[in-house]
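Why do we bother with a discrete structure alphabet at all? Because it lets us treat a fold like text: something you can write down, compare, and reason about line by line. To make this less abstract, here is a complete entry for SDR family oxidoreductase. Read it the way you would read a sentence in a foreign language you are learning: slowly, and without expecting to understand everything at once.
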Amino acid sequence: MDLSGKVAVVTGSGRGLGLAYARALAAAGASVVVNDVDAQAAEAAVKQITEDGGRAVAEVVAVGTGEAADALVNRAVNEFGRLDVMVTNAGVLRDRVLWKMSDDDFDTVQHVHLRGTFTCARAAAIRMREQGEGGRIIVAGSPAGQRGNFGQTNYAAAKAGIAAMVRTWAMELAKAGITANTVVPNAATEMTKTMPLFAPYIERYEKDGTPFPDSLRKGVAFGTAEDCAGLVVFLASDAAKDVTGQCVGIGGDKLSLWSHPQEISAAYTDGGWSADAIAAVWPTSVGRLPETYGIPAPQL
Ligand SMILES: NC(=O)c1ccc[n+]([C@@H]2O[C@H](COP(=O)([O-])OP(=O)(O)OC[C@H]3O[C@@H](n4cnc5c(N)ncnc54)[C@H](O)[C@@H]3O)[C@@H](O)[C@H]2O)c1
């Protein structure tokens, strides 16, 4: 996969998945603007990429505002002359059950994930349309956004919103040759290392490189951040020029395509549905096989 001559921005790429994406894009030949709120992490990422022979600069700014998004696009253009790939990956968690979630918990997560994705994609789309040579918008979704997840009202809302925005952008940007896709990753990072099920495996992996077992890599599609990076390079490449509007799952040894929400059953009655009429047919008709929800508990 050759991304020589292409320029990418990766938000939240000081560590975790973003770092793996930035390194893989640079290894494929792209010049990368590394972004993070954590200046030390961003600088370390740039050092790592340049030591590996890649080209990267750090732009330390908190994504979420239009100004931050403009700063990232401007940095790409000023430093490397153009922008081809925008990867919106920066994220935070503020998990609480609904009745304990504060306005601030909710707004913080929307600001970084939903607004951060919107503002960065908008700034990228403006620049890419001006360039007139197409482009790639690659955003971070989550199983929580696809299915809902206990304690994640704010995060599930943001991630579902991100997937919905991408379907919209795929339509709006098609004429300009700009694709928009959602990556739904699953990997050992700061964000996931405290999950009790994964913690002992991550500890061993970090201590002496003990690989994750098949039960994790295949069974629950859980592996390293590097396992997810090939998908981002693919989506950034010419090979994926016709892939757009998709939600693609990646983790451990598994690559998958998520379905989009769609009607799965319907019934009709002349003159429309009263509450009584709905109640009468619900158990045997439209409501006969209700949808499941939530991320299935991993079985190891
Ligand atoms: N790790 C997983 O299994 C998993 C699963 C589903 C979705 N995701 C998504 O993937 C993305 C990356 O997750 P991760 O696991 O690597 O997380 P992480 O916590 O390891 O890394 C996130 C990075 O984003 C940075 N960041 C936070 N707020 C920022 C802001 N406003 N501006 C710029 N940078 C900011 C952090 O400093 C950090 O370096 C997130 O959007 C996350 O929701 C991760």
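What the structure line is telling us, in plain words: The chain has a mean pLDDT of 96. The chain has ten helices and ten strands.
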